[in-house]
Write a structure and sequence with these properties.
Blueprint: E1 9-10, H1 19-27, E2 36-38, H2 40-47, E3 53-58, H3 62-72, E4 76-81, E5 86-93, E6 96-104, H4 110-115, E7 125-127, E8 134-135, H5 141-146, E9 149-150, H6 157-160, H7 163-174, E10 178-179, H8 181-190, H9 199-210, H10 215-224, H11 228-231, H12 251-268, H13 281-290, H14 294-301, H15 311-320, H16 326-335, H17 340-352, H18 355-360, H19 367-377, H20 380-396, H21 402-419, H22 437-444, H23 450-464, H24 471-485
Parallel strand pairs: 3-6, 9-10
Antiparallel strand pairs: 1-8, 2-3, 2-7, 4-5, 5-6
Helix pairs in contact: 7-9, 7-10, 9-15, 10-12, 12-15, 12-20, 13-21, 15-17, 16-17, 17-20, 19-21, 20-21, 23-24
Length: 489
């Protein structure tokens, strides 16, 4: 066997490649140059995990190869990095969207490319042409993967790209890895360099962390390493601040508990729910009261934001900023370079987050209150309801009283009925109009202006409350409202 660091050698355990790899092998079989699978797809094949992103590297012509993949699979081609020549093929395969990124070597060779990567478990490669159980692993990354160890590829790996400090935490939490001591020391020492990294790259890594597995554990680790304050300075004020629920040592601890409960709730309503997921009584009661909204909630949560950022990540960020004002949350969204629509949603969620609690504190919620809630919150109200559930469970802790929790769940159910109606009835804010502004002006002798809009809104409220149901009743109500405003002679 060759002693070359690039000589393929048997993997320490069998590799389980996804079907798309063999599809790519067939498409590119006649390409004149060697094409290599690298990074996460090799690591995930080692662990037997599904892969939705495929990274390929070549000596040259990456754009040509990425375009060839896109054309062969009727996908889309994008130029990601003209300087390094990195192309992306966005394709559909096995009923799902798959990203195939093709890049030229970083450096002059495959060895330069692998040793210049972040962590050893991401620095193994496999020749696409002969894909099987042999790997090129000059840094013994798959052995580290087998030992659940996260090790940097070189002593300057973190210093050269401080965003890798965030990635190290995300990977260690996601895959339950132990960070090797020298790597951990580098993260502590070089992590503050995040302030020199483009906000967009910090955003992408941080949002991936929030949208991944065990976000509370990842945030706790980032905080312990002194990195979280560099990304979300608002957490500084939470540490040591008294927790209103008196169950946690401070607001920061309580915030982490909310995020833990939120992750459990999202798992409970997800398609991946198992019997054991909802075995805990608080979560089991969510299934009992809210399962009829499960499909609608899944659709709501499946909304992707730009660059495929998951909605769950935005929800976790909102939970992290619950103690802030809506304006401060918007400023943080701007600093993270979130899209305008993400910032608007983040601001709305933080603004509405306590509203479900106030409504649930009443013996019953009126239809007028339900209408106003959804009129003023829109889809952010759904997020506010989910955060309300998480906050309630975090505040109750082990002392959860099932009778009180039942009442809260009934209140959330009543709210959600207004947004996710069943039986073909319209959403409470989408009831068919009983009268138009033009008709109001004609029948009541009004001029166009704010008064017309105000009357129409009061008619809609009364209709939502079930107080009126016909055009005649709407016109009569408008006349009464106008009469009340007329000055007495």
């Amino acid at each position: 066997m060759s002693d070359s660091p690039l000589a393929p050698r048997p993997s320490p355990r069998p590799l389980h490649w996804p079907a798309i790899v063999y599809t790519l092998q067939h498409i590119l079989a006649d390409d004149p140059q060697e094409i290599y699978l690298v990074g996460g797809v090799v690591r995930d094949a080692f662990w037997g995990l599904p892969a939705h992103d495929i990274d390929l590297v070549v000596a040259q012509d990456a754009f040509r190869i990425a375009r060839r993949v896109a054309n062969a699979l009727n996908g889309a081609f994008y130029r990601l990095d003209p300087e390094r020549e990195t192309g992306r093929a966005l394709v559909q395969a096995e009923g799902q969207q798959i990203i195939v990124d093709v890049a030229n070597f970083r450096g002059s060779s495959l060895l330069d490319d692998l040793t210049g990567r972040d962590f050893t478990l991401n620095a193994a490669a496999a020749p696409l042409r002969t894909v099987g159980n042999d790997v090129i692993d000059p840094l013994q990354g798959l052995q580290d993967a087998q030992n659940r160890l996260l090790r940097r590829c070189s002593p300057h790996a973190i210093a050269s790209d401080p965003v890798r400090a965030l990635r190290a935490v995300r990977l260690s939490v996601r895959f339950r890895l132990h960070i090797e001591p020298e790597t951990l020391a580098d993260i502590r020492r070089e992590g503050p360099g995040l302030t020199r990294v483009s906000p967009e790259r910090v955003r992408d890594e941080f949002m991936a962390l929030l949208g991944g597995l065990r976000p509370a554990a990842a945030l706790r680790t980032l905080d312990a390493l002194g990195l979280l304050r560099l990304v979300v300075p608002e957490v500084e004020a939470l540490c040591g601040a008294p927790d209103p629920s008196a169950l946690s040592t401070d607001v920061w601890t309580h915030t982490l508990q909310i995020i833990e409960r939120l992750e459990a709730i999202l798992q409970t309503i997800s398609p991946a729910r198992t019997d054991s997921t909802a075995a805990q009584v608080g979560l089991g009661m969510i299934v009992y009261y809210l399962d009829r909204f499960r499909a609608a909630l899944q659709e709501h949560l499946s909304q992707p934001w730009p660059n495929e950022r998951p909605h769950a990540a935005l929800l976790m960020l909102a939970a992290l900023l619950l103690a802030s004002t809506a304006e401060a949350a918007a400023r943080r969204g701007e600093a993270l370079r979130l899209s305008r629509h993400e910032i608007e949603r983040l601001q709305a969620v933080v603004r509405c987050a306590r509203w479900p609690d106030r409504l649930a504190a009443r013996p019953a919620i009126t239809r007028r209150e339900i209408y106003r809630f959804w009129r003023d919150s829109g889809p952010a109200g759904v997020d506010a309801c989910l955060l309300g559930l998480a906050s309630y469970l975090a505040a109750a802790g082990p002392t959860l009283a099932t009778a009180d929790w039942s009442h809260y769940l009934e209140s959330i159910s009543v709210l959600l009925e207004g947004y996710f109606p069943t039986g073909g009835t319209p959403r409470i804010t989408d009831l068919p109009a009983l009268v138009t502004g033009r008709e109001l002006m004609r029948r009541l002798g009004l001029q166009a202006g704010p008064e017309v809009g105000d009357l129409l809104e009061q008619i809609r409220e009364a209709q939502a409350a079930g107080e009126i149901a016909t055009t005649a009743e709407a016109l009569a109500l408008a006349s009464q409202l106008r009469a009340k405003k007329q000055p007495r002679a």
